[in-house]
Amino acid sequence: MAQDARLLELQHISQSYGAGSRQFVAVEDVNLTLSDGEFVALLGPSGCGKSTLLRIITGLQRPTSGLVLYRGRPLHGVNPNAAIVFQTFALFPWLTVLENVEVALKARGVPAPIRTTRAVDLLDRVGLDGFETAYPRELSGGMRQKVGFARAMAVEPELLCLDEPFSALDVLSAEALRGELLELWTSGSIPTRAILMVTHNIEEAVFMADRIVVMDKDPGRVIAELAIPLPHPRQRKHVDFLKVVDEVYGILAGQTEPEQVEMGSAPGEPGHTRALPHVTVNQLAGLLEHLAEAPGDRADLYRLSEDLKVDSDSLLRLAETAELLGFATIAKGDIMLTPLGETFAEAGILARKEIFRTRIRRLPLFKWLLSMLKAASGQRLQSEIVRTALELEFPPDEAARQLETAINWGRYAELLAYDDSDERIYLEPTQPAAEKAA
Ligand code: ADP
Ligand code: MG
To answer: Which end of the chain has less neighbouring CB within 10 Å, N or C?
Structure first.
């Protein structure tokens, strides 16, 4: 009985990327089961290996080690019983909405007349009735994502995998589409037996899933699991809902490592390069000022997300930055200013810059960037060159974002200058005397 209910089982899954001294463990020893009838959310910060796990589960990628069992049998190759919806769904621009759904059915050998009937029905169910003959370019992002859902569901997958399916949408479209998916799922009107949704949005996970599997990064691993026995439809303001959200915040934010580990390595060094969190200095200053005004210089992370009007993911990134720079400590879902953070919040603009400067110089990525600039002729570098170097460490879009954040922080700290017209990064020539000694 219990054996039959088990749809998917991951046993000791690990995944490494890179080679030689640059090899790093992206996912370490993940064990996970998904039962018939379950909606599970896989929650964790960016880079913890969520997409990697989904690719392994659907058979798009073979893990470095470990076993994937589907209905008790080892998975070989792509899993024909699973479908996956990505953050931005790649539709064929030259096909109509209807044809985009039919194409998935054709690929599975469904005969033509049945294809059309089924595709029309699905488009109707996701609320795209009347758009069958439209082309993707005529649709909003939310509607395109609906076509993506219809296409994934057209093949009637037993296991539906969703990789941050709502995160590229505006707030209203995302909320509407969440509701529609939940309606299809809870009413049992789709043959799908289980859903595994990757997200980094805490509220979304608590709103939709029966169980949350919490991951953390460096290395990517499961750190907690938690059942959500709340009935549907869930009320975001309900005290029980808020209690679960608070609990998850506590789990995610409570995982802090000793500083040496946390600092990681620089580009080119062995190991996994420590990425800069994508946060602007303004956002960080806003957080620290807010905390400085709070009683005891501390606040509940969950409340902060409401007070500062930022989503959970942005807030955790901000909190992570504050902690990385030594401005705050995080424990059990609370964030608290350190004396340094308090000093920063109360300091004037020049003192702030100086504090920030001494802190970011410690970060491996900055050390690397500054030493590259120092060695370059004229102490300047084409930003293109820096980005290319970063692309050895990060996927291209992430490399671009890393560079953007480094420039934003470095300019504020007056460690570097950036000239938009020739796209060069310069080492600031006149660094204050106090800095030279450091
Ligand atoms: P998430 O989806 O949780 O953001 P990913 O699974 O995309 O995480 O990535 C986990 C880690 O593995 C990240 O550090 C990412 O840069 C790295 N990574 C992912 N895919 C590859 C790849 N094909 N080659 C090298 N590194 C990769
Ligand atoms: Mg991902």
So the answer is: N
Question: What are the pLDDT digits (tens) for 82-95?
Answer: 998 887 767 888 99
End of a domain among 221, 252, 283?
252
Strands 82-85 and 73-74, by their bridges, are: unpaired
Residue at token pair 């709340």: 230
Q: Pairing state of beta strands 6-17 and 65-70?
A: antiparallel
Q: What is the pLDDT of residues 354-410, one digit of tens each?
A: 889 988 998 989 999 999 999 888 899 999 999 999 998 888 889 999 999 999 999
The crossing angle, in degrees rounded to 10, of helices 112-125 and 97-107 is: 130
Nearest to 89, CA basis, from 37, 164, 7: 164
Are residue 238 and residue 302 in the same domain, yes or no?
no
Atom of ligand 1 nearest to the CA of 54: 6
Give the CATH number, domain containing residue 427: 1.10.10
Ligand nearest to the CA of 15: 1
Assess whether 243 and 292 both reside in one domain: no
> Which CATH number covers residue 277?
1.10.10.10
Residues contacting ligand 1 via CB (< 6 Å): 17, 26, 44, 46-52, 220, 394-395
- Closest atom of ligand 1 to 55 CA is 6
